[in-house]
Amino acid sequence: MARSAPSTAARIELPERERGPLRSIMVRIAIVLSCIVVTAILVYIDRTGYRDNDKQGLTTLLDAFYYATVTLSTTGYGDVTPVSESARLINIVVITPLRFLFLIVLVGTTIEALTERSRQQFRFSRWRRHVRKHTVVVGYGMKGRSAVSALKDQGISAESIVVVDINGGAVKAATADGCVGVVGDARREEVLRQAAITGARQVIVASDSDDTSVLVTLTARRLNPTATIAAAAKEQQNIGVLRQGGADVVIPTAESAGRLLGLSITAPRAGELIEDLLEPVAGLQISEREVRPEDIGLSPARLSAQGEIVLTVIRGGISHRFDSGGVKVFQPGDRIVVIRATEVATRSAEAAAD
């Protein structure tokens, strides 16, 4: 998570398509100015057909702009009036429609602003009412983006992911990816509450500094004692601190990368296998799921024939690894961790066989 000055306030940003508000405002200003200019030119061309209380006709371009302004804005002081038939005809045919357009732009901008504010408040209220069992990701740097990508690969919808980052640009990138964003310092309790962390099912702490990760983990665990918390640690010595602070899983990012580099040198094929697991879109995918009704009564080895390798069976909250021999057949309520080929890899293999 990018470092910046602490912020006491959090701002929620829901995902939506970029609308370009500045461009919209500039277009409205251009329309208003065009209406005034067109009206002033028409009035100045037929300036002898107007009467001023102080003089006969309009003599300067400034007089024409003055009349255009007070007429289009419906101020109407009555000091300048059209008296000739041509001037009155222009007022009926041209200036009156321009007045309507002028008012529509001005009033429409105000109504649109009020409508947008009401729409945002409605969306926030609806999101607050329905957000449950979601995932909170703290930090949207490289680790946070990769974590969100992995969640999507596992079938978790982007709408159920809330990204918290102190950097507004990072949050904007998260909302562009379909996530809900909260701009604020995740070390502060009120910011995590804005992310509805009390109702979250899982929390991923992907900060760029271990001290921030420890504080966020402590606060998150205090606010939500039941959520599964996974945190990243840059230094090995901070793993224990994060676990004591409430993290269920701690990933040592620097050492994990180093071990993978060493494995890729000493055992290149094994390194390729791990790389496939880390890039599930193109190769293998590791996932956790409940046993299906058709799996009950089967042994873990039987799933291998169906393209799934069982690594762990979770029964009664206890994990039984494939080499422990503790599970002979699947029972209702079991959860399994399996490795299988992704759909993309499967289709590629079928295409190559054809």
Please tell me about this protein's structure.
The protein is of the alpha/beta class and about 350 residues long. The protein is about 45% helix and about 20% strand. The protein has eleven helices and 13 strands. The chain has helices at about 20-45, 60-70, 85-130, 140-155, 170-175, 190-195, 210-225, 240-245, 255-265, 270-280, 345-354; strands spanning about 10-15, 50, 80, 135-140, 160-165, 180-185, 200-205, 230-235, 250, 285-290, 310-315, 320, 335-340. Strands 1-6-5-4-7-8-9 form a seven-stranded mixed sheet, sandwiched between helices. A four-stranded antiparallel sheet has the order 10-13-11-12. Strand 7, helix 7 and strand 8 (about 230-235) form a beta-alpha-beta unit. Helix 9 (about 255-265) crosses helix 10 (about 270-280).
Summarize the structure in short:
47% of the residues lie in helices and 18% in strands. The chain has helices spanning 21-45, 61-72, 85-130, 142-153, 168-176, 189-194, 210-223, 239-244, 253-266, 268-278, 343-353; strands spanning 11-13, 50-52, 80-82, 135-138, 161-165, 180-183, 202-205, 228-233, 249-252, 284-290, 308-315, 318-321, 335-341.
Please give the structural blueprint.
Layout: E1 11-13, H1 21-45, E2 50-52, H2 61-72, E3 80-82, H3 85-130, E4 135-138, H4 142-153, E5 161-165, H5 168-176, E6 180-183, H6 189-194, E7 202-205, H7 210-223, E8 228-233, H8 239-244, E9 249-252, H9 253-266, H10 268-278, E10 284-290, E11 308-315, E12 318-321, E13 335-341, H11 343-353
Parallel strand pairs: 4-5, 4-7, 5-6, 7-8, 8-9
Antiparallel strand pairs: 1-6, 2-3, 10-13, 11-12, 11-13
Helix pairs in contact: 1-2, 1-3, 9-10
